[in-house]
Amino acid sequence: MRKILCIFLSVGAVAVSCTRGPESSKLITQVDFTDVSIEDSFWSAQLKKHKDAVLPACIAQIEDSTGRMQNFINAGKRSGQHSGIFFDDSDVYKALEGIAYSLAVNPDPVLESKADEWIGYIASAQLEDGYINTYYTLTGLDRRWTDMDRHEMYCAGHLIEAGVAYYKATGKRTLLDVGIRMADYMMTVFGPGKRDWVPGHEEIELALVKLYQQTGERKYLDFAYWLLEERGHGHGSLGPDGGEWNAPYYQDAVPVKDLADISGHAVRCMYLYCGMADVAALVPGTGYVDALHRLWDDVVLRNMYITGGIGSSAHNEGFTEDYDLPNLEAYCETCASVGMVLWNHRMNQFTGDSKYADVLERAMYNGVISGVSLAGDRFFYVNPLESVGTHHRQRWYGTACCPSQISRFLPSVGNYIYGVSDDALWVNLFIGSTADFKADGRNVTISQRTEYPWDGKVSLTVTSDRPLKKSLKIRVPQWCGSWTLSRNGKPVEPVMDKGYALVGNWESGDEFTLDMSMPVELVSADPRVKADEGKRAVRRGPLVYCLEEADNPDGFASLSVSSGTEFRVEEAPDMLGGIDVIKAEDSGREMTFIPYFLWDNRGPGCMKVWVDYID
Predict the structure, then answer these.
(1) Which is more confident, 8 or 67?
(2) Which of 401, 402, 480, 546 is catalytic?
(3) Looking at the domain that runs over 420-516, which CATH code has it been given?
(4) Domain 5-416 class, CATH top level
(5) How many angstroms separate the CA atoms of 100 and 174, rounded?
(6) Whether 444 contacts 437, CB under 8 Å
(7) Residues of the chain with pLDDT > 70: what percent?
(8) 401 in active site
């Protein structure tokens, strides 16, 4: 292993020597979504909705309704008023990232021209020293970098991510250069021997790693590492007018390598853990991976909803105490569920353990796509597990992180389906698709056909232009209690490895069929979750179901299930875009359950995931 001595980073009172190890210590490399063509009745509809409705909604709000783009125009002129909140620039950057991902797989000259127009305004708003933030440019540059919770680095991180994405999609580097200049400027102000800084809202850390991977400039990785190591040493501050710094809320109570319990704001935690994972993959000896394992246990075993949502409290948009998971008051921000996908994807890449992909899938099918309406033009910020009929999606929000988050997540879903390691090809998600990529210098194609999540049968064909000495690993979801695997129509009994069915010997052109039983399940919560005591939830495959008053108008509050409830699955092709509903009959009374992600698409009404259980 070749190691190159690099700079010493001053971390608190400790000097850390940083050596360049392997390009990445992650076991699995994702097959990029640009190498995956999705042809799937479920996800193709989501992608069409993204292009036809989600992106246009974001563009209209940014340009016409909220003043976000006008802020950049005014900042370019160095005059005029700032409208909105101090972090509004980030929504523009996230929408641009979503546009970039869409263009990468679906070129559109009109959409690209719109993005170029925006980028022109953004570039004009950048100051000569490289600083860019419309809030401070228009309200007083003398106040920049005086409050660690004013999201300057958060906005910069989303700028960098958008710049990298747009360059990859189009080859145009104007936005990337804006991000590089901002990163270089920040490094003249902060770093070893300069000013300390703890970003109140994490995001810059993972963005800097992306910038390092794009440019090959080690300084960006070093800066990401330095920012992570700044935490837990008493550097946090809200500035002269901001009040007391709440260290647990900002994940600043202890050094990040010592973290064991999640605290504070849910989305900030997710971005922090992603940044820790990305740096740990490239910098040996951080201790971050051990911390991430401890944190995962705390999040998933004690603080996660059945939907994969996290964050139980509106007070801090995050966490209170273990097992405090109220349903009506559940926060479960859409951005936090996206963060669960991002973080669990990284944990799966480190370990090859399917439990992380299981959580990724749960969050994606329930906590994430619930954040956008069936039509694609309304959004949830908060995703409760119960409603009395007053909680609805909105066209936009004053804090609009969730709509713009959805705009960049949906087109990148292909990132999470397939992976490659030194010894295996990995199938993590069941989405009808064709992936064409290179592995060990061979051209490999994996084709997948399925009606998942409505049906548990998945057909996979693997081809390679030359023999490939890699096993095939197919995830068997944790929810699946009964399944079979066949190869070219003949049953096989694969070895199981961390939740994956491992097929060691295969030939190009082999077809594998995974047939997973998908019964309706009544799920009980951990008995320490007081909110769900005496209740059950209904799940089938990866989908959590709920009762909605639109289907059950009579006596909704008294609906219950029991050990004698009989369930049947029915196709409903004309309902909510075409779904499978679950009919439940108990003591002559029939109930209809729909997938949770589709609730609140038919007007006001009550909803509940956890239903009273009569033993």
Answers:
(1) 67
(2) 401
(3) 2.60.420
(4) mainly alpha
(5) 13
(6) yes
(7) 96
(8) yes
CB 336 within 8 Å of CB 262: no
**How far apart are alpha carbons 405 and 408 in whole angstroms?**
5
**What is the band of 116 on the pLDDT scale with cuts at 50, 70, 90?**
very high
pLDDT at position 317 is: 86
Residue 260 tokens, joined:
């064991």
Q: State if pTM tops 0.90.
A: yes
Question: In the annotation, is 6 catalytic?
Answer: no
DSSP annotation of 403: H
Bridge partners of 546, per DSSP, are 594
- pLDDT value at 306 more than 90: yes
Fold equal for 5-416 and 420-516: no
CA distance 356 to 362: 10
Cβ neighbourhood burial of 519 (10 Å; 0-12, 13-18, 19+): middle
d(CA 333, CA 267): 8
Q: Where are the domains of the chain?
A: 5-416, 420-516, 520-614
The secondary structure of the chain in percent helix, strand, coil, rounded to multiples of 5, reads: 40, 20, 40
Average pLDDT of 364-391?
97
Tell me the per-residue pLDDT of 478-526, one tens digit each, with 9 for 90 and over: 999 999 999 999 999 999 999 999 999 899 999 999 999 999 999 999 9
If you search the block for the tokens 């392997």, which residue do you land on? Answer: 22
Per the listing, tokens 């145009």 go with: 172
Helix, strand, or coil (residue 355): helix
Strand partners, 584: 567, 591
Closest by CA to 351, choosing from 360, 338, 362, is 360
The catalytically annotated residue of 203, 229, 230, 317 is 317
pLDDT at 10 over 60: no
Q: Which band of pLDDT confidence, cut at 50, 70 and 90, is reported for residue 23?
A: low
- Listed in sequence order, the DSSP H helices in 147-287 are 152-170, 174-189, 204-215, 218-229, 266-282
**Distance (Å, rounded) from C-alpha 600 to C-alpha 453?**
20
Tell me 369's DSSP state. G
Q: Which amino acid is at 571?
A: E
Token output for 552: 């059950």
- Report the range of poorest mean pLDDT among 12-16, 181-185, 416-420, 482-486: 12-16
Instruction: Give first-to-last CA distance, the chain, whole Å.
Output: 61
| CA separation for the pair 411, 548 (Å, rounded) | 29
Tokens standing for residue 395:
């066209």
